[in-house]
Description:
Blueprint: H1 20-40, E1 50-54, E2 62-64, E3 80-82, E4 88-90, H2 97-109, E5 115-119, H3 122-128, E6 148-151, H4 161-171, E7 176-179, E8 183-188, H5 191-214, H6 222-232, H7 235-252
Parallel strand pairs: 6-7
Antiparallel strand pairs: 1-2, 1-5, 2-3, 3-4, 5-8, 7-8
Helix pairs in contact: 1-5, 1-7, 2-4, 3-5, 5-7
Zinc ion binds next to loops.
Amino acid sequence: xxxxxxxxxxxxxxxxxxxxxxxxxxxxxxxxxxxxxxxxxxxxxxxxxxxxxxxxxxxxxxxxxxxxxxxxxxxxxxxxxxxxxxxxxxxxxxxxxxxxxxxxxxxxxxxxxxxxxxxxxxxxxxxxxxxxxxxxxxxxxxxxxxxxxxxxxxxxxxxxxxxxxxxxxxxxxxxxxxxxxxxxxxxxxxxxxxxxxxxxxxxxxxxxxxxxxxxxxxxxxxxxxxxxxxxxxxxxxxxxxxxxxxxxxxxxxxxxxx
Length: 258
Ligand SMILES: [Zn+2]
């Protein structure tokens, strides 16, 4: 079987930056765009949910959504910067305590992770209540084959960094973790990648719930599932899948860049 090369189709790849300020602005723009997309997909649930982007200059700081602002109205200028003590050091809004407790520990445990996404999306939290990993029943679900884990320890809203540490431990080196009785959490080497994995995982949960309601889905065998993960589950693939969604969102809601 042919080995899949890193970029066989000469696809576009993530940009390089000459200054940290440029890189920060790019990350913040994609972060605001990711929130607009989460709103478009219906992933909001009141004030729950957070996506974080590590600051390129201060790697123990992250940008996150302002607590209590609807995902569908977040602009670049609304994003807040939080330090490693959970203090807002830039921006005029408060931070969600759960965002700090979980994301600060995930960013600390995974230096490769630039962004992490978590929301109380309907199919993700429904699937999470089953306490099971997703099966490779579609091509798209193979992105998560042997690349997601389960945190099977719900004890209320996550306000303690010690619980964030246990979530980070459950995540390990994978791209996603199912928080049982709670929802999904995905990570990536870019905002685009973390956001795309969340969208794809939520839809994979919906897909498996529907398939198991209708019958017994056929599972893709292990070697093919592993090969497909290489094809659709790479960092570059995750980044690339986000691009058309981002382009459409910026065209339709250019105020997100304000
Ligand atoms: Zn949550």
